[in-house]
Amino acid sequence: MAPHTAQFQNRHNQGGAHTHGSSTSFSEFRTATTHKGKLALKKRAPKIVETGKKTLLLHGTKTSAVLNAVLTQIYHLKKESAIKYSRKNDNIKPFEAGGETSLEFFAQKTDCSLFLYGSHSKKRPNNLVLGRMYDFHVYDLVEVGIENFRGMESFDYDKKIAPKEGSKPFMAFIGEGFESVNELKQLKEVLLDLFRGEVVENLNLAGVDRAYVCTALSPTKVFFTHCALRLKKSGTVVPRMELVEVGPSMDMVIRRHRPPNESVMKEAMKTSRDKPKKKEKNVKKDPLQGKIGNVYIPDQKIGEMVLPNKSKGVKRERREAKQQKHGSDEHASKKQKDEFS
């Protein structure tokens, strides 16, 4: 099933402790007492269609130089909508019961619905956990191992074509595994939420200057790379596009994954179509004529109507008639005087 990632929500706890899956809320419901606090809670309130999603980047007890570079460069790519903590966290274990408590606390504190957690050990070297939150509880998890990492500094390209911060990217997923393998399907959903940014209706082609290309090399391995788009003349209205690899690039080897709970997924996938519509008064629909509405006009009370003042034309006619009568009276009196004399 294709994910409705545009409507994937980041909801707040609406009071008391309640459970999503195996995690339990540890925060209590607080009521804002100031106008500024009420606006902040309203901004974080649940929405059917979320505007933008922030990403939280965290370090484990031990990390490697490769993993530090991965987190730093992903933070650079999402700088306008990401928060990065450099302090080490030894009590975050997302896949273990109770190990996500601190992670959920940081997500609620920073209002982030996506997170990346990096750790390094002998058993799982260069380990990166990607996940999403719902109602500030862990929604799903994908754990990958980073191999063959190449940073931005290792690519030779013209700096003029470097993508700008905040630009919209293309997302390309190459391989049948993204449609048939559950692990790859889940990784695809998480990467879409992570890199595509805010969902928009219309887009100017000149503002699209980057592309993220994900290639399924095997059922458990994905090659990820970041490319800049170069527009060239094609002889038509639509320009010809060329991909120039600008980094970072890496191989992601899937290790563990935890899909979302079905009941929680059903609630998180609600769309604006599922929202009940208000009943329109005096409106009905006809299969032939379409939407028909009734318009009610109140009775006109002519006896109570205020009539307008007399127009200037009537006044002018009366004035001309008066002047004409006055002129005729003067002419008659003058004629009488001439006869008398």
From TrEMBL:
UniProt-recorded Gene Ontology molecular function terms: rRNA binding
Keyword Nucleus: yes
Compositional bias per record (Basic and acidic residues), positions renumbered to this chain: 264-274, 317-341
Keywords tagged on the record: Nucleus
UniProt KW Nucleus keyword: yes
Domain Brix: 53-263
Family, as annotated: Belongs to the RPF2 family.
Protein name: Ribosome production factor 2 homolog
Lineage: Eukaryota, Viridiplantae, Streptophyta, Embryophyta, Tracheophyta
